[in-house]
Specification:
The chain is mainly α. It has a domain of 233 residues: MetI-like (MetI-like fold, Orthogonal Bundle), CATH 1.10.3720.10. Helix content is 78%, strand content 0%. The radius of gyration is 44 Å and the shape is elongated.
Length: 363
C-alpha cells in the first residue's frame, strides 16, 4: 500500500510538471507572436518613413524648381535697362490712364512748387527787413511798429472765435442729433450755410459797415470787426462740426442709450469728445481766414495804429497793416517783414491746434 501511494504521488508530480511546461510553452508562443507583430509594425513604420522620405525629396525638388524660377524672374528687371520691357509696359497701359497720371503728378508738382516759391520769397524779402524798431511798443511814422497790429490780430481772432464757435457747434449739434431726418428746415439751413461760404469778403465788409457800424452805432471798432468776421466763419465752423459729428459711429450712441444715458449726456459725453479732431480742423481754417482777412476789416474795424484799450476802439490787424504799408509805397521792406511775421503766426497757430487735437484725442 505504501508503494502504491508513493507511485501515485510521483505520477501527480510528473503531471503537474507537464502542465507547467505546457503553460510555459503557450506563453512563449504568445511572446513569439507578439514579437512577430512588432516586427511587422516595425516593417510598416519603415515603409512609411521611406514614403515620407520620398515625399521630402519631391518637396525639395519642387523647392529647387521654384528657386530656379524666382532666380530667373529676378533677372527680368535687368531688361528694363534695354528699354524693351518699358516699351511693352507703356503700350499695355491705356493712353487716357497715362494722361491722367501726367496731370495728377503735374498738378502736385505745381502746387508744391508754388508753396515753396511763396514761402521762399517771403522769407528772402522779409528777413533782411526785420529790425528792432519794428518791434517797438508804440507805433510811429518812422518805426512803423507791428506790435500794436499783432496784439490787435490776437484780440480780433479770440473775440471772433468766442462769438462764432459756440453758435456753429450748437447749430451743428441740433442739425445732426436733434432735427428729424428729411426736415425742410435742416435743408434750408445747410443751403444757406453753403451760400454764405461763397460770398466775397468785401460783401461782408459792406454789410458790417451798414449794419454794425452805422445802424447799431458801433462805429469803426474791434467789436464791429469781430461780429463781421464771426458771420464769415460761422458757415465754415458749422459745416465742419456737422461732418465731424456725422463721422462718429452710431454704435457709440446706441451703447450710451443702452446704458441708460439720455440724449443730452450722450451728445456731450460720448459724441462730442469723439468729434473734437474734426471740430478743431474747422476752427484752424477759421483762424486762418480771420488772420488773413483785410477787406471786411477795413470797412468795420478801421486802420487806427494804436493798441485798442476796449472793444469799441478802432484798430488794425497785421493784414491791414501790411496792406497800408505796401499801398503807401514808402515802407515796402517793412511790409515784407510784416508778411513774414504773419506767416510765422499762422503756422504757429496751426501747429498748436494740431498738438492740442492729438492730446485731446489721446484723452
Amino acid at each position: 500500500m505504501m508503494k502504491h501511494a508513493k507511485i501515485k504521488m510521483q505520477m501527480q508530480r510528473i503531471q503537474s510538471q507537464s502542465v507547467q511546461l505546457d503553460s510555459a510553452t503557450g506563453i512563449n508562443a504568445q511572446n513569439f507572436s507578439k514579437t512577430e507583430n512588432m516586427s511587422h509594425t516595425t516593417t510598416q513604420t519603415t515603409n512609411i518613413n521611406a514614403q515620407n522620405s520620398s515625399k521630402t525629396e519631391n518637396m525639395s525638388h519642387t523647392t529647387t524648381q521654384t528657386t530656379d524660377i524666382i532666380a530667373q524672374n529676378s533677372k527680368t528687371p535687368l531688361n528694363f535697362r534695354n528699354g524693351d520691357t518699358t516699351k511693352h509696359h507703356a503700350k499695355s497701359r491705356p493712353p487716357f490712364d497715362i494722361f491722367l497720371s501726367i496731370i495728377t503728378y503735374g498738378a502736385a508738382g505745381l502746387t508744391i512748387l508754388a508753396l515753396i516759391s511763396i514761402i521762399g520769397y517771403i522769407i528772402i524779402m522779409g528777413i533782411p527787413n526785420l529790425k528792432p524798431s519794428l518791434f517797438s511798443l508804440t507805433y510811429t511814422n518812422d518805426n512803423v511798429s507791428i506790435i500794436p497790429a499783432l496784439i490787435t490780430t490776437i484780440e480780433m481772432t479770440l473775440l471772433s472765435l468766442v462769438i462764432a464757435v459756440p453758435l456753429g457747434i450748437f447749430t451743428a449739434i441740433y442739425l445732426t442729433e436733434y432735427a428729424k431726418r428729411g426736415n425742410k428746415l435742416v435743408g434750408l439751413v445747410r443751403v444757406t450755410a453753403e451760400t454764405l461760404s461763397g460770398i466775397p469778403s468785401i460783401v461782408y465788409g459792406l454789410f458790417g459797415m451798414l449794419f454794425f457800424v452805422t445802424t447799431l452805432g458801433l462805429g469803426f471798432s474791434l467789436i464791429a470787426g469781430a461780429c463781421t468776421l464771426s458771420i464769415m466763419i460761422l458757415p465754415l465752423i458749422m459745416r465742419t462740426t456737422e461732418e465731424a459729428l456725422i463721422s462718429v459711429p452710431d454704435s457709440y450712441r446706441e451703447g450710451s442709450f443702452g446704458l441708460g444715458a439720455g440724449r443730452l449726456r450722450t451728445v456731450f459725453k460720448i459724441v462730442l469728445p469723439a468729434a473734437i479732431p474734426g471740430i478743431l480742423s474747422g476752427i484752424i481754417l477759421a483762424v486762418g481766414r480771420i488772420v488773413g482777412e483785410t477787406a471786411a476789416l477795413i470797412y468795420t474795424a478801421g486802420t487806427a495804429t494804436d493798441i485798442p484799450m476796449s472793444v469799441t476802439d478802432s484798430a488794425r490787424t497785421l493784414s491791414i497793416h501790411m496792406y497800408v504799408l505796401s499801398n503807401e509805397g514808402i515802407h515796402t521792406g517793412e511790409a515784407y517783414a510784416t508778411a513774414l511775421i504773419l506767416l510765422v503766426m499762422v503756422i504757429g497757430i496751426n501747429a498748436l491746434a494740431a498738438f492740442a487735437a492729438k492730446k485731446l484725442t489721446k484723452i
